[in-house]
Amino acid sequence: xxxxxxxxxxxxxxxxxxxxxxxxxxxxxxxxxxxxxxxxxxxxxxxxxxxxxxxxxxxxxxxxxxxxxxxxxxxxxxxxxxxxxxxxxxxxxxxxxxxxxxxxxxxxxxxxxxxxxxxxxxxxxxxxxxxxxxxxxxxxxxxxxxxxxxxxxxxxxxxxxxxxxxxxxxxxxxxxxxxxxxxxxxxxxxxxxxxxxxxxxxxxxxxxxxxxxxxxxxxxxxxxxxxxxxxxxxxxxxxxxxxxxxxxxxxxxxxxxxxxxxxxxxxxxxxxxxxxxxxxxxxxxxxxxxxxxxxxxxxxxxxxxxxxxxxxxxxxxxxxxxxxxxxxxxxxxxxxxxxxxxxxxxxxxxxxxxxxxxxxxxxxxxxxxxxxxxx
Length: 375
Description:
This protein is an alpha/beta fold and 375 residues long. It is 31% helix and 24% strand.
């Protein structure tokens, strides 16, 4: 049976996510603002949650209702047959996005929907589900647009960017999903040596290792919300899990390196790599930036230096960017470097001509991924 799904994604990554979904077998793929519409069967739903490196979550729309105001929204949500999706012994939560003139507070809108659902349950079952905002069995998403509300089941639960391997974070971490997207934007392939000379808590090298070893990132997810659905197919899901485990590689095709000047941060990176069992695949080193040497004749560098929004002051950062450019120029002939920055003035300090500038968002910060061909 073919269903329509909506994958949520960070702003600016819609096209990359759409390509990933197509590669996973999705049909009728249509990018939208911070999301991608697509179609597929239940097996694809499970597979996307398990394998996607770039999206946050997959929503399954179940009803679109009129919602001019809170009363109309309540009445229409209560008319949905919730017994198909939620039993009284299951907990649930409602996340709401969007607004219109009369429904302009997402928390209030979510409360209206919760009340409509439990009132339905009282009528049908004479009992109701409990609310659990931290770890619900069933997660419901409501999106208000104009005078309509799209009600969806969230198949994912905790966002896919939370791989589960990273209790240890640097001071300004990248989301794992953005790190994976940057690797795609840099056209990195597992047969190309990879280096992040400012690796922080190691997210770029770790995501590269997961890709290089063909490890499905969803294997680190504790539980997906779809596992609590009434139509959950345990046999099908176990088959997909087994296939994913069998497709993993035991060794990288090309080496992956990460370095940072901070000893404690490198310890964090090693802990994170150990948590997803790739610590023996990545060579992490504590090295001052000026002492970094190319570990191979050629390869790809991707790094995310601080750009003043969270860390450091502009003068120190200007010197850091100049040093980064000097290291590239003097030592890394034959390599290609990519630098993510949210500060145009700082990027000028690198002192090298860019061959490409790719717009991307790091959270709410408008950034650019700068490409340098090092000859």
